[in-house]
Batch of 3 targets.
Target 1
Amino acid sequence: NDCDLRLSRCNPDHWLGRINMGLQEVKKKIVEEAERQAKLLLADADTEAKKIERAAKEEVEKYKSELQQNAETMLKTAERKEHAAAEFEGKRILLDTKKALIEQVMGETTQRLQKLPSAERNKLLEKLMKKAAHEIDIKKVYVNEKDGAAAKSKGIAVEKKAMLGGLIAETEDGKISVDFSFETLLEQLKHEHLREIGEVLFT
């Protein structure tokens, strides 16, 4: 038996078998190590990919948030502009309406002045004559044809003029005059009391 054992150890096939077994073991270990390393690399790659994905999602969310904020800012700005424009347009329409009504009132006043009875016209002319006399030395007046006779009774020069009523008084040399014609008085009234007339009409 000892001889058989020694013979077997001397047999080349015996040693080749043992070497082959050793190579198989080494190969197995190399494969196992390669698989382990591959798993580690895959795990690291997966972790890195998830980090990149999270970062990308955060950037997207940040961008969406910024877009939303910009959109809200633009919307608020647009709303403010629209409100300001609407307010301005409303004020413009209101002002135009006031002006139109004031013009209407002035027109109606002009018609009433044209239809004044002679007695009332004479009273107005008398008052305006006294007012003019406080400002200048009256030597001549311009009046409406209807008021010619009343003006002549004051003993001053009278010249008829195409005007609604009232008078324009002058000094002897004609260098100084005061205009108390109805047209001028109404125009002054409109400009001086535009706000007051508007308040009366819209309150």
Target 2
Amino acid sequence: IKFTFVEFIVPHSGMAVKQEWAVDTISISYYTGIIVRNDCKDTLRKEKHPKKVSTMMTLTEFREARDLLSGILSNTSLIHSPYYSKRTGGEVYIKPENMQVTGAYKVRGACYKVSTLTDEEKAKGLVTASAGNHAQGVAFAAQRAGIEATIVMPTTTPLVKVNNTKDYGAHVVLEGSCFDESAAVALKLSEEKGLTYVHPFND
């Protein structure tokens, strides 16, 4: 079995870069959602936020997470793309995670994270930092579990994303001009109030 890795470096140009790897060890990239090899050294882009990978999740763990999320999230089956398949010379399938309840795949990790919390952690509440998709995912997961959530968002966040996050019952704090500044505020709140910090990708 082989996966085809396709990344569009400059989307508006219509150009793509294709590379194939035999599957041995794989992981899901937090930044693009594309399947990539952990040991790939011929990287076509730099990770925005490098992360350390200590151990790989097993297939059993993936299946357990899938079963846990079944009935909570929408089933987004792969859709074959004739256009991109033709453009890249390989079979390209698109996973329409925009059809999730919050409009993005980030809700998957948020719901799974909430399911692992202890009763004490749930009672204290959650905090995170995000400019949109992760914020809505955590807010949705917290609301569903009856947990209080505080979301720190940059002051530049589009109003529609701020309002969507509030609609899921989260307390939104607009502070920081960028993600890193907002994350620093969220981490401070986590330490001061004992809130569980839900990392947007490195967990």
Target 3
Amino acid sequence: NSSVKFICDEITASATLSLTQKASYLSVSPTSLSSKWDGGKFSITISSDCDWTCTPGKEWIIVSSNEGNRGSKTITVDVAKNTATSTRSGEISIVSKTSASSTRVIVNQEVAQVSLSTQSLNYQWSGETLSLTVTSNCPWEITDLPQWISASVTAGSSGMTGLSNKKKKNDGNSQRTYTASIINKDSNVKQEVLLTQKYCVD
């Protein structure tokens, strides 16, 4: 705020004129985005009575336009896949070019998750079918299995897979073990299950 005072020398009167600068209007909608682990495209709308800049705070967030003018403008936000092993957050800063007005959009992204119903399966020497439940928010696959194990399902989104050695007896003189991996190929997510088969003791 500022004021200008007018004084007339010929009469004993004065007036004060107050000048107030109107703050720039700058808003964005929505103010937060939630992305799945594999990313995607989102839209945000910026409304203002001033020119502005738009700057992502993380390299995995890309915007279709880095600046705009007064009025309303919709831009696209492209979120990359999260290949890390933890959730992540970032922000997009929208700042007026002519005033101190600013706003932001918070971007939260989940991580790919694969969980197993058990970390180990123990088979009788004569062979049997045991079930392993895989729960995930992403595609998964079993990367490899030994010859004495077969799987009814080797890949999927979620659900149950049966790991069987029903017809493959262990005729050796010691138990055998193998660590099988269940992974998501597009991230660093990996789970392991230990497979053990007993041997026949006469």
